[in-house]
Amino acid sequence: MRRKLQGQHANNSLGRQNDHYDSYRLNGNSNAVIEDGNEADLYSLQMDMPIKVLNGSPGYINILDGLNAWQLVSELAEATGQPAAASFKHVSPAGAAIGVPLNDTEAQSLMVADLSIDPRRPSLASALARARGADRMSSFGDFIALSQKCDEITARLISREISDGVIAPDYDDQALSMLAKKKNGNYIILRIDPKNLPAEDEVRTIFGLKLKQKRNAAALSTDSFTDVAVGDGGEITAETVDDLLVACVAVKYTQSDAVCFAYRGQVIGMGAGQQSRLNCTRLAGEKAANWWLRQHPRILSLPWRANVRRAEKANIIDAIVAGIRVDDGNSMSLLQPNSIAKNAATEATERQWNNYFATSVKALSQKERKEWLDQFKGVCIASESHFPGRECIDLAKQVLLRTHALGKLYLIMCVY
């Protein structure tokens, strides 16, 4: 009975009840969050379970991440007509994206330049590269969702990342074989029925009491932005509408307070679960600035030593763009850390710089940072509720560019 979702129906003691429930016994470890071995169960209020475990042993948090991430990508794909992917961590998206083709700079910055991702047309692999590249530190150990069948190149991308699991409507044979070998054969692979429609009501139990409300079925589309006003006589392009859809759908599935910055079909900065919308805007803006700074020419040409791991590169790059000074090639000191990279910088100072680089590297100067950020235009920002005042907008401009040269800022407040 402790096979725990190994792709077979667990006909345990809870089992079917009056032919209205289908159930599975979950892994009590719950993604290493609950480590006391408590058993957990998953029920379907329909005759058949809409998900099937093809590999691995999912826990409570894995299921929460998978189901929320699936709702996000399926809704985003429906709204934009493009493949969509999401990277979830602790029940909020670290990143989400549609399959806008990658240019050379993006492919290098997102660490996928060595893969044969088609640069001419939208693809699932492009969507996943963007989703996991939004905030690589937060995506470490994530749960991935894909809006369509996982192909081999997308599986190759997943196979080399630190990830706990994936959910998709189906998998190519080669993709499934590749993913099933990940994590010593323990990588969680879920298949979900894309035609499954949940019940209208959602119910949860807290402290022995049941709460019930209507499911948030509000659907966004390109028509949702036909009446958006643009200053200076400008017009919203189709690409901007896609960015607004990405931002608005992403905050819908993010713990409140939620603020999202989006650009070129992807989340580039997500503030999640903050108790202050002002601080949430600051957090999302710093992540967005970090995303853009990682595309600086000096960052793309860092002289890495051989065999530096992808996760280490991501952490070191975050430290460099945050303001780390290299003194003598053997040590680092923090100049002006922001809240995003402080932990990465602290960890990085414990190791010698030459463990990572073949030659001495200087951090981006404040002048370099400002000049590069000044080129960042046309960002979209969305919030799942209203901004209480203009302070959040002023902060978004300041934290993203440190100047007021933001260009066009597309702002949408999604009150679901």
TrEMBL record:
Domain of life: Eukaryota
GO molecular function, one term: phosphoribosylaminoimidazolecarboxamide formyltransferase activity
InterPro entries registered for this protein in UniProt: AICAR_Tfase_dup_dom_sf, AICAR_Tfase_insert_dom_sf, Cytidine_deaminase-like, PurH-like
Parts of the chain that traverse the membrane: none
Residue ranges, annotated region (Disordered): 1-22
SUPFAM superfamilies recorded: Cytidine deaminase-like (SSF53927)
Entry's Gene Ontology BP terms: 'de novo' IMP biosynthetic process
Record's GO cellular component terms: cytosol
Protein name (Swiss-Prot/TrEMBL): Phosphoribosylaminoimidazolecarboxamide formyltransferase
Lineage of origin: Eukaryota, Metazoa, Ecdysozoa, Nematoda, Chromadorea
